[in-house]
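Notebook entry, structure prediction.
Reason for the run: the old model in the group folder had no record of what sequence produced it. Starting over properly, with the input documented here first.
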Amino acid sequence: MFEFNDFLNNTNSKEVLEDVIKSGLSPNILKLAGAKVFTGSKEELQAKLGFSIDTNGRIFIEFPYFTQEGLIPFYRYKVLPPIVIDGKEIKYLHPKNTPAIPYILPIIWEVKDKSNRPIWITEGEKKALKLIQYGKNAIGLSGVWNF
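New structure, fully documented this time:
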């Protein structure tokens, strides 16, 4: 667990730790991605999302999205446990009025000689991170089934 301290952001969530270990994500890739457990207030989360959400008993994993210049225009959140609305599980939250853009880490933007490198395209942040962890140039598409 010590290796995941940066990611856990001074929390002690067994559920979050089990989620990332199940995904096979290393502490190093999570640190590279800037992913961490959100520890702000309910109001801060609602301000980032642009809508209110029931946070009681839930943990939110924050994934920063990057521009080519390395800026962070917004964050997406994995919700543990998922929110259930009308029988449908909501596992990720995306900010209101924010277009879906590809999840591309700065390390991928910085790849030299891009014309000779294959690119892997997958669904979601965690799958993209797993590919990058194994040396692949990966881009994640968020919310594929929401389009």
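Summary: The longest helix spans residues 14-23.
The old model has been moved to the deprecated folder.
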